[in-house]
Amino acid sequence: LAKERGKNNYQFYSSDLNGLSTRKMELENGLRRAIEQDEMMIYYQPQVDLSTGELVGVEALLRWKHPQYGMISPLEFIPLAEETGLIVPLGKWVMRTACMQNKIWQDSGFPAIPVAVNISVRQMEDEYFVDSVTEVLQETGLDPQYLELEITESIVQNIEKSTLILRLLRLIGVKLSIDDFGTGYSSLSILKHLPIDKIKIDKSFVDDIIYHSNQGAMVKTIIDMGLNLNFKVIAEGIEKKEQVNFLIDNACQIGQGYYYSPPLSVEFMEAYLAQGVSGYSSEL
Ligand code: C2E
Ligand code: MG
Ligand code: MG
Ligand code: MG
């Protein structure tokens, strides 16, 4: 017992030296109960037609309101959920909640638009992933065409298995998009063989349009190639009017970013849906 206590004391002491690892441990433990305790919530970020400003979709973005630490970014806790495997139940909760919410909006008379849900590779590797998508759609009654799954280029690391899963998802009728396109090691020539509907140009390239010397050369190339392969192309992280102009001039039709709206709580998203405008840019 003494030995065990000694060991625990040591761990406590060592993690105390490094506040970060204490936080990491607490978050990992908290993650297990966060769903039951109602600490997880989803914000929705509008996706708009760049020429008309019309709302064409929303992306579901997970938020964790931690009892001690307050709002925690998914950039911090999603990797922990992936490490521990908790991403599987957590990801299913996100998918179910987002589909349920979308169905509620459609049933209350708002124009039907797809909700995009981020999917980790770790989730796609789970043998029950395709079943869980079917189950969520049945449970919520959402028409599959209004669920879009955002996956990343890392799926190409296991291209044969991924292709099979993507084909099954296609059969179910959901839409598929490649998130953060351009940041991974895939190329459009690999992606052209996959049953994908859309690519999302990563924010770093959209930033290039105004902040760097190549003046959007990459963005231009990605749009051209994407459209040639019959993908829809959406630009992420749009913050400035100049970016919108450049994107429209180069035939990119859809965009998402703070310029239009930050991710919104359900309440603010409903105000947006009702008025077609946001004006809540303080709420990031
Ligand atoms: P992502 O899927 O690429 O989502 C876009 C991120 O960019 C979001 O960050 C969004 O708030 C942010 N963003 C949107 N417009 C702008 C802009 O104009 N400027 C700037 N600076 N940022 C903008 P967020 O919500 O913090 O999410 C970060 C990442 O966490 C997401 O990147 C996604 O990879 C991951 N994530 C979020 N929710 C989930 C989830 O439910 N499941 C999984 N597996 N991953 C998630
Ligand atoms: Mg995304
Ligand atoms: Mg992205
Ligand atoms: Mg990302």
TrEMBL record:
Keyword Membrane included in the entry's annotation: yes
Keywords: Membrane, Transmembrane, Transmembrane helix
Domain EAL: 24-277
Domain of life, source organism: Bacteria
Protein name per UniProt: Bifunctional diguanylate cyclase/phosphodiesterase
Shown residues in whole-protein numbering: 461 to 744 of 744
